Amino acid sequence: MGRVPHTALLACLLAAAATGCNYGFGMYSQALKSQFNMSQGQLDNINTIPYAFGVTSPLWGLLSRKLGTRITLVAGGLAVGTAQLSIYLVATKRVTVPSPPNTLVAIAILQYFAMAMITAPAFSVPVLHFPEQRADAIALVKSFVGLSAAVVSQTYVLFFGAATDDPKSLNCILIWMALSYLFTLTAAALIPSQPEPEAMEPRKVLRVLFWVLVVGGISTMIVSLLPYGTVHNALVPFVLLLAVLPIPTMLCYPLDPPVTPDELLAKKSEISKKTFESPNNVTILQMLQRPDAWLLWWVGSMVIGGGNMLVTHMAQIIKSAGAPDSMTATVVTVFSCCNMLGRLTCMVPSNMVVMKGHARGWFAGGLCVAMAVGHAGFLLAATMTGSSRYLMLVTSDVIAGLSFGAIWPHLVILASELYGSKNLSANYMFYDGGCGAFGTMVLANAIPDLFYKTPPGSNTCTGPHCYSTTHLCIIGLNLTGCVAAAAISLRSTQLYRDIRDSHMCTPRAEGLKHDLLLAPEEDLFFSPESQDCASINRASGEDSVPPRPLRDINKHESSQSCEGYGEVPSRLS
């Protein structure tokens, strides 16, 4: 009783970790290529063709609602782990198949379906338990996807050394298998069947968990940049400890101070989900009839496609730039850490944009620009040598990883804010799968394969020309994504002003005065007849301010404003 939101969030964190296995593909891609003498196109297909089936993702969201979160997680976790074991057996030639490249693609597709089953509850359940703090909760869950890839990469380095084209690199798949089985089944055991109506959203533990993950992500990135050796290996266990620290944090951190039934009633009256999103909850079919839905799809596709191109081709990009193979594990880990940090921290500046009265889409447009800048850096790095090449590769890796990570929680939050959270499990899965399908197949598969040319008798391309045209195409496409984000922002300006005003008028649980909490229910609603900001300030003991117009959130009509209400928090937490 009272800890249901904690266990729900912990379960989603664990489940999310199992969905990051595709981001570790660069650790063993060279070994796969060497094992079966694959062409670059055959190798790309293993990590990109499954995304083409992302168009089926909304169906997995609907299935999750039908089966329930617990059964969905059990089925998805068992399927993901079994698929990874199958990939390992085929890749190591323990199981002989007629066409290994095609068989690996088929297994990867089944693995993708299983991950979609996990994704549906893992990224929609937090919104139900944290309606007001949805941005922070989703960012925390999404960050675990990137963190898991970074931790698995460094765990592999600790036990097996640098990733090369040696078959031992395939052991990385076994680490993913163990993580998938353990985390998803544990999540299924922990996750509540439904939100607890009497539970208040915990706030302090979210801040603690935020900083735990920030320290963990930065520490992992620093360790990955150290030269392999005694110091590096000694610090990896410390990184692993930080990675599991969120588990006891969520299970043991003290609950927020309890509230009385009257206080709970007042708080529930004060905070309504409709205050923080569009009042219209639309189905996926209704959503797809709106231009904004397709504009957001284009934005997500460009950033996700640009990121997945790097995830899939990272080892080959390093080799074509003339950098040593030992750098592959470094850039994969750095990208994964920045992927994690981008997911975790992006809502801080994004919420600041909203608190200024601007649409969140402007920040999404900035992510398109950042992805374009990252690919421009990789383009330049291929023409450099020595330490300048190393610095440019790492810098570009950081920029691209941050933007790639940040787009994922934004797709969840934008889908819930623009279209409501009632049908979020299906609506979001359209973006999770649809953006991944189009972006990955075009930007990470078709375009690179079109321009990646190998000399006769070889399956490897070396030199700046290998990926230069691909980088230029992705830069241009991401700039069009920026234009699409601007269009979304202009069309949703009024909605986000209303969201801003509602946050400014919502006193935070910490610091709420007792007399305000116990105020009659009807006094907690803002209307032209009953309330203004001055009266709210007087009730909470703040200095009064002249009343200003506040917007009626549900009707989207201008009535009164809440500017001047106390101190406006910098984060929507």
Describe this structure in a few short sentences.
By secondary structure, this protein is mainly α. The protein has helices at residues 4-17, 25-36, 40-48, 57-67, 69-91, 100-122, 125-129, 134-160, 171-190, 204-225, 230-244, 246-252, 261-270, 284-287, 291-320, 327-345, 347-355, 361-381, 386-419, 424-451, 465-491, 493-504, 514-517, 533-539, and strands spanning 548-552, 557-561.
What features would you describe in this structure?
The protein is an all-alpha fold and 573 residues long. It is 69% helix and 2% strand. It contains 24 helices and 2 strands. A two-stranded antiparallel sheet has the order 1-2. It is globular and about 65 Å long. It starts with a helix and ends in a 12-residue tail after the last strand.
What is the rounded distance between the termini? Answer: 22 Å
Helix-residue proportion: 55-70%
Helix/strand/pairing category: mainly alpha
Mean pLDDT, nearest integer?
A: 80
Count of DSSP H/I helices? 24
